[in-house]
Amino acid sequence: QFPLPVYSSVIRSLSRIKNGRAAFAVCKWIQSRPISEGKPKAYVYNRILGVINGNGNYELARQVLEEMKKNGVEPDIVTYNSVIGLCEKQGLHNEAMELFWVMQEKRVCPDIATYKALLGGIGKLEDVDGGFELILNAKDECIMSGKKELVQKLEELILEFCDRQIRAWLENKDSPINVPTLLKKMEEAQIELPPGNYKKLLWLCGKREKDHVLVKALHTILRKKNVPIDVFLCNHAIRLLRTAKKWWAALEVYEYMLASGPQPNKETYAIIRSQFNFLLNASRKRRNFKWALQLLDKMEAKGIEPDRFAWDTALVTCAQATNSAAAVFVFQKMIEHGQKPSLCSYGALLSALEKGALFNKAEMVWKHMKRTGLRPNIEAYTTMISVYGGAGKQEELMRLVDEMRMAGISPNLITFNALITASVKAGSGKRAHDWFQQMEATGITPDATTYDQLVKALCLEGKRELARDIYIKAELLKFNLSNFSL
Q: How far apart are CA 131 and CA 142, in angstroms?
């Protein structure tokens, strides 16, 4: 028989080689000795639990607790922290919480190590609400009992927990954590991360589709707290919001920059301009010229100079909407802003004027375009064919066709349709049929518009038999033509 300290030393040695079962066996052997020779104290069991913790054997730890209860040894804070930590490592969060409530019933006050272990398990479960409730309740109790030092440590712990959860959300695309809700809870609980952390989190955004929600929330927090943000971080936020198609949220960041700084740089203007260009293109697809004009006004108001793409897109939108007045207005503003009109600009304006039957103005624009040295393309020639056809200027139209061919530009389907339509307006079925024959000779396949206009021209000139033959041919090709009295 040896004194109790000798056995304690043996258990300590066994703990160094992480042999928990042997340590527990020594402990049980001590218990078999007469009471007069001394029984194991709590610190002996704690050493055994320390060994077991390293091995991760929860079942053995549970046996140690039962043995302590059996021998009337009350677990202390070290005991509970060891077993709670082991439970969380093994993913047994419910068992850890059960021990947490037991220790409170036994009036063993949890310390920072207890809460740290529990929060670790809660973090793995991504139970943000549970973590908040645990720490805030503990904080309130500490305030009531005057434990100021523990209150401060709990505040640091919850900050660390929140920061870790947000970073986990950013790194894990499948994480269910709702970070904006977490940030709101933090604000309500008056829990604030260091200003630098908010910036770091904003820089980390961009790996997942839903990051735009966090970008907006973090930017709002930084602005509320008057945290200085550099232009590069602002550009990063704008870029992410634009990519997520949150156009107005991106513009809001830009407006903050104009109002409170930092001043936008070339990259900022380029990002915002590309965003407006995207919206202008959307207005073109919807043929919404009013929206296009509003976007140009918005760009001017926000100090964004429209580029050629913006002006040309707005002009095309006005032309598609058959609004010649709006097209002329945009063209004039484009020149006022020092932007040199391109062939696309002139083409869009010509198209708008032709659709608005402003043939004289269209002819003036055409002549001005040629004076600038721009070489017309097939689209411009086709528009002017429609202009001369609508104005009844057949001689000018024929000269234009000759000019086009001399320039090495061959008519396409739309050009031939414009020529046949011009013949309809001139009441010349023969000329319309000549264009039709030329079209077929060049290998261009007529469409429904071609046949419809040709039949109309032949009917107007009284060539009903030929018109009937063309009509039957179109029907055989499954084209739906207008109703004609043939």
A: 17
User: Do 25 and 13 touch, CB atoms closer than 8 A?
Assistant: no
Quick: pLDDT tens for 426-474.
999 999 999 999 999 999 999 999 999 999 999 988 899 999 999 999 9
pLDDT digits over 370-397, tens only?
Answer: 999 999 999 999 999 999 999 999 999 9
Question: For residue 397, which of 382, 408, 411 has the smallest C-alpha distance?
Answer: 382
486: pLDDT confidence band, cut at 50, 70 and 90?
A: low
Whole-number average pLDDT of the chain:
85
Q: pLDDT tens digits, residue range 303-343?
A: 899 999 999 999 999 999 999 999 999 999 999 999 999 99
The angle formed by the CA atoms of residues 462, 464 and 467, to the nearest 5 degrees, is: 120
Q: Helix (H, G, I), strand (E, B), or coil: what is residue 461? A: coil
Which H or E run includes 289? helix 289-301
**Cα distance between residue 135 and residue 152, in whole Å:** 12
- Identify whether the C-beta of residue 24 lies closer than 8 Å to the C-beta of residue 15: no
How far is C-alpha 268 from the geometric centre of its chain's CA atoms?
A: 18
Query: How far, in Å, CA of 125 to CA of 219, rounded?
Result: 28
In DSSP notation, 6-59 reads HHHHHHHHHHHTT-HHHHHHHHHHHHTS-GGG----HHHHHHHHHHHHHHT-HH
**What is the rounded distance in angstroms from the CA atom of residue 10 to the CA atom of residue 30?**
12
Rounded to 5, what percent of the chain is helix, strand, coil? 75, 0, 25
SS3 231: helix
Backbone angles phi, psi at 232, to 5 degrees: -70, -40
* Nearest residue to 329 (alpha-carbon basis) of 363, 367, 303, 356: 356
d(CA 422, CA 390): 7
Task: Give CA–CA dist 65/81, Å, rounded.
Answer: 12
pLDDT at 349 over 50: yes
Q: Which two tokens stand for residue 359?
A: 């043939």
Could you give the CA distance from residue 328 to residue 352 in angstroms, rounded to a whole number? Answer: 8
Supply the pLDDT for residue 36. 45
Highest mean pLDDT among 102-116, 117-131, 144-158, 318-332: 318-332
| pLDDT the model gives residue 8 | 58
**Residue at 302: amino acid letter:** K
User: Are 100 and 118 in contact, with CB atoms under 8 Å apart?
Assistant: yes
Single pTM value for the model: 0.67
Residue 264 is given by DSSP the state P
Is the bond leading into 262 cis (omega within 30 degrees of zero)? Answer: yes
Structure tokens of 320?
């598609």
Furthest-apart CA atoms within the chain: distance in Å: 134
What are the phi and psi torsion angles at 321 (to 5°)?
-85, 5
Residues 486 and 484: their CA atoms lie apart, in Å, by 6
Residues across the chain: 486
- What pLDDT does 37 receive? 47
